User: Fold this.
Amino acid sequence: MARYDRAITVFSPDGHLFQVEYALEAVRKGNAAVGVRGSDVVVLGVEKKSTPKLQDSRSVKKIVSLDDHVALACAGLKADARVLINRARIECQSHRLTVEDPVTVEYITRYIAGMQQKYTQSGGVRPFGLSTLIAGFDPYTCVPSLYQTDPSGTFQAWKANATGRNSNSMREFLEKNYKETSGQETVKLAIRALLEVVESGGKNIEIAVMTKEHGLRQLEEAEIDAIVADIDAEKAAAEAAKKGPARET
Amino acid sequence: MKLDTSGLESTALFFGLSNELLDGFSAAPFFEVPNTTNFDGFQKEAIQMVKPAKGTTTLAFIFKEGVMVAADSRASMGGYISSQSVKKIIEINPYMLGTMAGGAADCQFWHRNLGIKCRLHELANKRRISVTGASKLLANILYSYRGMGLSVGTMIAGWDETGPGLYYVDSEGGRLKGTRFSVGSGSPYAYGVLDNGYRYDMSIEEAAELARRSIYHATFRDGASGGVASVYYVGPDGWKKLSGDDVGELHYKYYPVTPSTVEQEMVEVAGA
Assistant:
């Protein structure tokens, strides 16, 4: 097996591309990221590792916009992310220039996935070590979309998904608790999913909400704290309701 | 989606050998010079060569019901009429039309090429390309061949999600969005009739008649236009050919010959 992971252009005898699988490992070590699609919003959330005291936290933005109507969150190698994001931003503008139309979310996802795939089929390069969650609204049709790409270059559309650290637990939680939501409810659902694996608190979570009218809006720490408090209160109430009737009998 | 620069790929092969010699020296920057005797005037010469071919009249306008597109069908080479039955309205796809003015080969080829690009866009993006996008694709291609002697003066007319669309695109790289255009040597005459009779609220029949009349009047006065006046309509369900009338017959339809009364009949004189 060791002989088949040097140059990624080589298949292993049982059909694996090991470099791609190792890249997925890198993603699994990256920070947790979640995306939830509502009927009128798409919410992206990312785990924020505690910033060192002297670091200017404003320079570390993990959810970025690719254009006015498309945003991206990722898990994995952040330096690779920078390169991918820059190319995607250029492609968004190039598309606007060539056909006088903003990109659709599917188009830019296909472009990013295509680029990730290119690096799995060239000599001397390694794949990008990140999975992305791309959220946005299609121009004209106003349909919210959420897509995910991964180092192998595949992409799918999702109603809700998670990637990065402990993504399996988050995805399980979403599968159990997902229902069609809108507005603040969607934000709550995203935060609840993140809280499954992240320490509670506004300073450990970064949330951004994408709407048709206002584009991408990053939530303030105070806002997140308030919603977390709401969620905790709801949880406590649910707990109490469960214990309550049992005691009365 | 990069600009289509395939036409500008240089003949680097010529200079490949000499570059090896210069390796090791810092070669002075240079650019390829066209292989011609008349460096200053060869572009003008190329254009002059095809200029007579813009002998044509085409027009298109947007009105309440959609887009009306009309053209004549004469091809002339100087004073010689080479054909009276040229198809100057090119069907790019079922909902988009292009008109031909200038070099017939250039127009036909690049419209066909545009049709291919539009179809590929549909397949990749699962939705039709807009008229804006299609005209931009063509304009970018023509721009990359600027100065190389292409002669194309075309209008792209179609119906997309935003409604009727009309763009004028030419081989200089120009691209204009508008509601009324006429292109070709007969265009001044066509504009006169078109601008005079145009209203936004016309029915399809009225608009078709206006288009037909404009082409007819242009063919009447312009020697390089003639043949058959074709009229196409582009609506929400795509384009439809409405009519193709010989302009000679149209002339007698608009200006029928009334038999005039003779003052004095000629009588055969017997004898003498």
